[in-house]
């Protein structure tokens, strides 16, 4: 394999993505098991090409793992401690993993570059899990959807990055609704309430919730859902165009 | 003057600060007239030392210009277009300015570094203008407080950075109130309303506003303000400890 081309990337700057998906009433994120260490987990991430914007780099990194384009993606925080990566307990494992993997691709210079200080731009994305076709990137052994309450200890500060992403997702969730890719095309009031309950990890009173959501004036009411019992069937909604 | 020490900084990564102050019912920001070009204005900014966190770099850059420590400071957005700086119409002016200024300090290598692509982390700060002692940094000819509606065209994307900072400041202003350094120690309800009106650029109905602010339960009511007419004097408030 040919050498990892350092020259094409900005040094010291990385992107990590918290990819939220919603399935079976659970809020999940996509995590990566690294090729470069045993039981080493991480957020899907990557570097920024000198020729691409940071937003395009994040979209590319996301596309490489999910095969999806045009996903709702938002920068939420920069992680820039002076000890990031260089004082991480995972750093030595990673160096050893790179060395063992392919010495043509990961030369000493490349390994130094990869394990030097990095300032990480955190992005979160919202996807419909059904539409995702996961595919491993260069650094992934495998990718896996995990409930946000069932995450392994991940490398460096990646668990903290998830918590910050969740805080950012919760902040003004209402105003992000339309950008969401978390719900199917049409959904019931109950389904949108379940989504809110999964994101905020609490229950909402049904009447108050319905009023609050309808007051946002972003939903369009369609026909009733076919259930066989027309009088009790719930209405279907979609986001107004 | 000795050479600008490139080795101490992370390349391609800068910080720009939107320093909001509030005075005479006006929301203002501190801007810098650059040494390196005629009528060239910019946000106060700088670079990140390899030995400091990004938050500490921002605090240092702010301290260097205002002589203030422990200021409310928040990252709000990263500006990372692939053409930032390198395709800026101000880039040639700046190169010429550096060249002319001091060729010992700004060698060709330093000038290339300074005018290469930069990803900029935007921070905003909230300060009490009365407490600020402005002092010029290495890149500033002078610093000036300007009403946010009376800003010159600034270099690169700095005017856009101000707009984004204002959007971030407005988002959840209520929850940022306590962190504020914008108001004096004690203030009247009218003063806090005037601050809100300056930030949001609109008026608020006095009764609704008072109820909304008191409902936040962050204020402590003190004695009445001494005005000579005790019966009409407004109450003073401060943030509850």
TrEMBL record, chains A, B:
Alphabetically ordered keywords of this record: Hydrolase
A single MF term (Gene Ontology): 8-oxo-7,8-dihydrodeoxyguanosine triphosphate pyrophosphatase activity
Keyword DNA repair found: no
Domain Nudix hydrolase as annotated: residue spans: 10-168
Listed InterPro entries: NUDIX_hydrolase-like_dom_sf (IPR015797), NUDIX_hydrolase_dom (IPR000086), WH-like_DNA-bd_sf (IPR036388), WH_DNA-bd_sf (IPR036390), WHD_NrtR (IPR054105)
Catalytic class of the enzyme: hydrolase
Source organism superkingdom: Bacteria
Pfam families to which the protein is assigned, alphabetical: NUDIX, WHD_NrtR
Organism name: Aquirufa nivalisilvae
Protein's UniProt name: 8-oxo-dGTP diphosphatase
Signal sequence extent: none
CDD domains: NUDIX_NadM_like
EC number assigned by the record: 3.6.1.55
């Amino acid at each position: 394999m040919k050498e990892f081309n350092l020259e094409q990337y900005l040094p010291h700057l990385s992107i990590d993505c918290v990819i939220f998906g919603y399935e079976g009433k659970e809020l999940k994120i996509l995590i990566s098991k690294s090729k470069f260490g045993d039981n080493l987990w991480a957020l899907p991430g990557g570097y920024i090409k000198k020729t691409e914007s940071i937003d395009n780099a994040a979209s590319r990194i996301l596309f490489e793992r999910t095969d999806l384009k045009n996903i709702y993606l938002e920068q939420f925080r920069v992680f820039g401690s002076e000890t990031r990566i260089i004082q991480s307990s995972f750093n030595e494992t990673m160096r050893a993993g790179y060395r063992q993997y392919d010495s043509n691709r990961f030369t000493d210079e490349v390994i130094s570059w990869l394990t030097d200080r990095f300032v990480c731009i955190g992005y979160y994305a919202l996807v419909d899990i059904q539409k995702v076709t996961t595919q491993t990137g260069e650094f992934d052994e495998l990718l896996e959807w995990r409930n946000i309450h069932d995450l392994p200890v991940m490398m460096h500060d990646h668990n903290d990055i998830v918590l910050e992403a969740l805080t950012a997702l919760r902040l003004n969730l209402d105003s992000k609704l339309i950008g969401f890719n978390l719900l199917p095309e049409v959904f019931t009031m109950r389904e949108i309430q379940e989504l809110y309950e999964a994101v905020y990890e609490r229950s909402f009173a049904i009447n108050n919730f319905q009023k609050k959501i309808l007051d946002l004036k972003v939903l369009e009411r369609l026909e009733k859902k076919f259930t066989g019992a027309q009088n009790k069937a719930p209405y279907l909604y979609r986001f107004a165009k």
